[in-house]
Design goal:
Blueprint: E1 5-10, H1 11-15, E2 21-24, H2 44-54, E3 61-62, E4 66-71, E5 74-79, H3 81-94, E6 103-106, H4 110-118, H5 136-152, H6 158-167, E7 169-175, H7 181-191, H8 197-209, H9 223-258, H10 261-267, H11 276-287, H12 298-304, H13 312-335, H14 337-347, H15 353-366, H16 375-380, H17 386-390, H18 401-412, H19 430-448, E8 461-465, E9 491-495, H20 496-502, H21 507-515, H22 530-536, H23 543-561
Parallel strand pairs: 2-5, 2-6, 3-7, 4-7
Antiparallel strand pairs: 1-7, 4-5, 8-9
Helix pairs in contact: 2-5, 3-5, 14-15, 14-19, 18-23
Length: 570
Amino acid sequence: MTNSKTEFKAIGEFLLQENKTFVIPNYQRGYKWAVKEEGKNETAVEKLMDDLINADKNQQYFLQGVTVSEEKEEIVLIDGQQRTTTLYLILWCLDPSNIEKINLRYDIREKSKEFIEKLRNHNFDYQSFDKEEKYQDIYYFKKAIEQIKEKLKGLNDKNTFKEFLLNKITILYIIIDPEKATKTFTMMNGSKASMLPEELVKAEILRRISLPETKEKIVSTSVDDNLLELKGIITQDWETNALRSRYAREWDKWLYWWNRQEVRDFFGVKNPMGLLLKYYYWIKLNGNNQKKEEKFSFEGFKALLIDNGNNQKQKTKLAFKELRDLQKSFEDILKKPKVHNYLKMSLLCSTSKEDKYDIIKYFMSKKNEDKLTDDYAKWRLVGATHKEITDPENNNSKESKKEKAFRVLKLLSQQYLYWDENDEDFDDGRKEMAYKQLLRLNVEMDNALNRRFDFSIWKNRSLEHIYPKSKKDEINWSGNNRISIHCIGNLVLLYGSNNSSFGAESVPDKKKAFFNIQKEDVAFQSRHLLHTISVFASDDWGIKEIKNNQDKFISRFEEDYNITLNDNER
């Protein structure tokens, strides 16, 4: 016998059900309607608000349906939690008293549940809740509130809008059997592709650790024995719920960490769980000698959780522990400034996903070394491969890492590095080599201060001529065949936006702009580039200074890479 049925309900009839609690189950993903999806100009919250505000208030308005299971006083939202939460927030923004009779509970997510409940208190300062932004749901609740309030600013009659919301907006209300809830959720979300593989993995892990322990039942006629067994069952259920709750909270913390903009930019990722699941999957396949190129998928990951001995729960616990340890390693390699800096420079040189993972694996193995050297990063910057650096005796490269460094130095020591008007075949990668080596010099100065370098410059990088190109004819370059206006001695790394602000200014005017910190120019990001500052700090700038800077650059490169240019190559 089933409890399945379908009916139409107005929003007021749906939300204001007396003595009922709406439950967001543990297998649901977090609240995300306040997130602007890639390629879209507005969030789902903003889209819904625009549609509702612009709708004909005298006509019935139909929203997409919700699927629930009803269990005594609880309405478990299987599909439709994003819409339901957003409607709850809209009613609160109209007037906090509107939600006094609505009970909305985020199962397992204690802080999310607390935030939603506290909104019913008229004196609740929601902006002060979770100021450290530790919880992703709460961050997006706040964003949704801001977006709703912004849309409501242009609304003249909020009472009419509220009446329309409660009485004219209708949903299809679908009730299914509680036993079918999880399966239905996976099927529905899978079919409409609203669940990502990462979200399905979470749901599968929570499902597996909720499986009952399989053990032989001992039949007994003793009341004490049966009471003891019942007590054991209750204890086991309590422990399972506690474990599932802890897993869900930990997962959400990982999710929040990977969705911090600085983390996404650092690793160059866009998916919600960043590299955690994909990298873990890659490690497990490599350990089993399977093909590296096999793409991460939910089905593939689920296969990792299968235990041939039928101990699914223990296998899942082990996998979660491995994920926890891996997440900590990711967090650790970003905490230590030198590891952070050398890793990012190396990642800038990665050539493929496999290469990227090899780099990360190398740095994870070195993360606890107090005296981590820059060897790996410096060789990557001259084009050396992972194998050439870590296993030089067993690679088949035609050119050794030292030969690559020598070739780079010869090119960077040329008279014309930035441009050569007389050479049609100039484009041989010299500028890119200059970018990387000038970046390295700036990073090393931050390393000396044990400071994490700001790599945002890499997306907005530029080479700046200290002595301006437009004034090159004012200098007599004769007799200086190793330097020119375009040589490395006259170039520094700069943000592209700052480069344009310099224009064709003279050297004194450029210095004035660079060091004028009293000027309200927050966009002048280049002031954190310590090597660039040190070069700009020179009192005078002409042929002598350009040559000295060039010689200094070459000497530093020779020392760092343990190579030497011949006199005729200098």
